[in-house]
Write a structure and sequence with these properties.
By secondary structure, the protein is mainly alpha-helical. It has 7 helices and no strands. Helix 1 runs antiparallel to helix 3 and helix 4 runs antiparallel to helix 6.
Amino acid sequence: FAVRPRGGRVVLLVVCFSALIALGEHTPLFKWLYDLGLARTIRYPEKFALMAIFVTIVFASMMFDRITRGDQELLHAAIGILLATSVFAGIATVFTFTPWYQKTFVALWGTRPPNETKFMTGLYQIDWAVATVRGLIYAGFLYWLDRRKASRAWFMALLLVTAVDLCYVGRELIPTFPRNFFDAPPVAATLPRSKA
């Protein structure tokens, strides 16, 4: 897996820099920059995370383009990374069903009410299981690409799986309020109507 794609070091530097700035006062770097007068106008340092996200998306798109054009070395590295992360997520999924997981959760995140802890650990069980399945599905797509050329059916299947994946995480990425949130409360009907 010793693939060193062109531009990878620059992306790594930008991601590390933006992460350090985005952490704000939680690292000594931000205090030093503030003392030097370089960070006094940064009101919300977490917005620097967007720089890392943008660079990572562009870099991932370039690498995916190389994979679909037949870069076997990069393809095999991507399959290996997907399988490794899927195995890790699978082990984490199994761990979430053990009695040690709740104890570890409480130790890491602090004491919470029992119902809240049970709810949160239940969410993590689902998330780790979904991460395992997601990684295996995408590794399967790349394995298919390793055996055959990218066809129209392959792109359509990948598009469908990606759309389903985005629908699943859509509520977390873009939370919305239910329709009845915007309805006036019943007490509003008792108030006089505005004549404006």
